[in-house]
Design brief:
Length: 319
């Protein structure tokens, strides 16, 4: 499903029409958290969540924080529900064995950096990570999940899109209203250029600024032609990043977030690229969903989170 455009417009009759359902959605989220009983653990549990539906930069933030704690000599594990994965139970992701359709694309990508557990019930995933020796557990999503105690909660938000029209689903992109969410958060991680007016929220938590930066791979993107495709929450951001590197894009194909890359889609993309003598290129997250035999035909652009002020990160956690 593509994100509705009116979610990020100042005013829309669609948002106004759906507003009563949005109010109800927010009340249900509040009651779920209020009435929930959370499980506490001996390991440090840091939740990397969001108020928005869809991608805001949680996965690269989780990778960056894992790297931060690993460099301190701590045993860091990530727990995820494995969105769209068909697995059953709770288990450790093996990037050499598992496929994205089994565990989800995000856990598979993150497992290249540290231990990742997938479980439909997050509390079971944290328990498994703790039993395996984890000192720090990064909870990928789960900000609104009342079943686990979080020692530290982070809201990740895109600096350009922000909180959109500030309305709850389906009138807007929010899972709960902003003031309600901020009360549960210890920090607000803003990813990318800060174009959204966050000053409208005087009671916001500690703000940490970061940006997504392409990794230098020695690739000269100014040479040749490329057909770019992406099945992420905001494909245009990926296309813009490629263009900023000087890539000549013959076409940009925006797919649905987490869209399954079946034979029909891949054949269509390959045919388009062949007609224009272009090289296929996609995101890291899309690349892990490609069939093994097709991966050699596609380039991927790796990006990593870079914090504007690393000292702020040190002061935030103090461990």
């Amino acid at each position: 499903m593509r994100t509705p455009k009116f979610w990020y417009q100042p005013s829309s009759w669609k948002a106004t029409f759906l507003l009563p359902i949005g109010y109800l959605y927010n009340i249900l989220t509040y009651l779920r958290r209020k009435l929930g009983r959370h499980q506490k653990y001996d390991c440090l549990v840091i939740c990397i969540g969001n108020l928005n539906v869809g991608g805001t930069g949680k996965t690269p933030t989780a990778i960056a924080l894992a790297d931060h704690f690993l460099k301190k000599g701590l045993k860091v594990h990530i727990v995820s529900r494995g969105y769209k994965g068909k697995f059953q139970g709770t288990f450790l992701v093996n990037p050499r064995k598992h496929k994205s359709e089994e565990v989800g694309d995000e856990p598979l990508l993150m497992s290249e950096f540290t231990s990742v557990w997938v479980s439909k019930k997050r509390k079971h995933g944290i328990a498994a990570a703790e039993k395996a020796g984890a000192q720090v557990v990064l909870l990928d999503d789960g900000f609104q999940d009342p079943s686990v105690h979080k020692d530290f909660s982070i809201i990740v938000v895109d600096g350009e899109r922000g909180f959109g029209n500030k309305k709850c689903m389906p009138a807007g992109p929010l899972r709960e209203n902003i003031s309600q969410g901020f009360k549960q958060a210890d920090a607000l991680f803003i990813v990318g250029p800060c174009l959204y007016n966050f000053d409208d929220f005087p009671n916001h938590p500690k703000i940490i600024h970061s940006k997504l930066k392409p990794i230098e791979t020695g690739m000269n993107w100014k040479e040749g032609k490329y057909l770019a495709f992406a099945g992420i929450a905001d494909p245009d951001k990926f296309f813009a990043t490629l263009q900023s590197l000087g890539a000549n894009l013959t076409e940009c194909v925006a797919l649905s977030d987490h869209q399954r890359l079946n034979a029909q889609i891949l054949k269509r993309l390959e045919s388009k690229a062949e007609r224009t003598h272009a090289q296929l290129v996609t995101t890291e997250k899309d690349a892990v969903r490609l069939p093994t035999a097709f991966r050699k035909k596609v380039l991927s652009l790796p990006v990593r989170i870079e914090f504007n002020n690393k000292n702020e990160l040190e002061n935030l956690f103090k461990i």
